[in-house]
Amino acid sequence: MNIETPRIVALVHRLSTLESGRPRTILSRLVPGARLSRPNEGAIKRVLIIKLSSIGDIVQALPVASALKRRFPTVRITWAVEDWAAPLIEHHPAIDRVAIFPRMTLRVQPDLRLWIRKFLAGARAIRAESYDVSIDLQGLLKSAVLAAISRGAVRIGVSGQREGAHLVSAPVPRSANARHAVDEYLDAACYLGAQPEQVEFGLAIDSAADASIVRMLSLAGVAPNRQILTVNPSASTSSKSWPAANWIALLRGIDGSIARIIVGGGENRVKHAAIASAVGGDVVDLTGRTTLPELVALLARSGVHVAPDTGSLHIAAALGRPVVGIYGPTPPVRLGPYGQPGQAIDHRELCGRWCPRVCVYARQCLRAVTPEEVREKIEVALSGESAGSLHAGPMTRRTAQP
Prior knowledge:
The chain has 402 residues and is of the alpha/beta class. The protein folds into 2 domains: 5-199, 3-Layer(aba) Sandwich (Rossmann fold); 207-393, Rossmann fold (3-Layer(aba) Sandwich), CATH 3.40.50.2000. The chain is 36% helix and 14% strand. The chain is built from 14 helices and 14 strands. The protein has helices spanning 5-15, 27-30, 55-71, 112-127, 141-149, 181-191, 207-219, 244-252, 269-279, 292-301, 311-318, 332-335, 364-367, 371-386; strands spanning 46-50, 76-82, 97-101, 131-136, 152-157, 170-171, 198-199, 228-231, 259-262, 284-285, 304-308, 323-326, 344-345, 395-396. The strands form 3 sheets. The chain has a 6-stranded parallel β-sheet, with helices on one face. Strands 10-9-8-11-12-13 form a 6-stranded parallel β-sheet, with helices on both faces. Strand 1, helix 3 (55-71) and strand 2 form a beta-alpha-beta unit. It is globular and about 60 Å long. It starts with a helix and ends in a 6-residue tail after the last strand.
């Protein structure tokens, strides 16, 4: 469970009295359960999208906002997101309002009163408007709470909801075939009448952030016309991370004419610094030194980005930049870099199609990926980039796969 239930139930009880003054509990919203209904397309004027985290998941959900805005140009879209990920969507062309919440996890909050104030501010931002539709793309208790307190006349979600979220937001129909997560999210837009043939992520490059990256690269000795390889050696969980020794071997084998830049979150500074030190040469380590908008700007300048299944990989793919994904326990068919299915490397065949949370094979599927395989993919990506085969515009929507 991703949020402290007693705290949230108490908050929801308080929020339910903000207007009427009469106590209404969350149970009145949840029983007898959500029923799927479809609003009249002409009545869709305001939409609430709930996708609070994480970076990669938010990026993959952005085409829903783009599709709705293209189909309904005058629709007003509000997006609920956690504060640490908000910069991804604050300047998105299809999003009109952002409701920002504190990080909603089981971790003990160092300042509980501040956390509550921030949560209530986000909740009030949601309740400041009524919505013809609320779309829960998170599918967890924390997002279900927000859907429950919103004024969504119709509440829908996507398949695979957990923690009782389906009791609040009815899942829309989806194909039984395995498809990418981006397409699963777009099921919600399709249900409302938006049928996108092209997938638009709409990630914006902040001009100030881009200027900051130019300065960083210049201070690091990276010439403006030099081709850039960016790598992020870490994922959110160690089970998705390639061994450090493999990253060292990979970076040592890269042509010296290519600038090698390591990126990642501040929590990975020690690990990434050790990799950079072992590689030597002119490797640039920007781990923990870029803001989220600066990371987006840097990836937009990257000739190719290499990473496991993590947020930076999906940002780069959404920007239309060449990528190489190193996959282990997560299936590339669903969570690979969108638009570049051939650039994900995995060896799941070693263990079978089903990958348990607790692996008895010590993630041999991930360890089986060799630096030589990755280097070969990098060369393919760089040759495609020099040929101008990729761009940051709309991508053709992928069809269902068997």
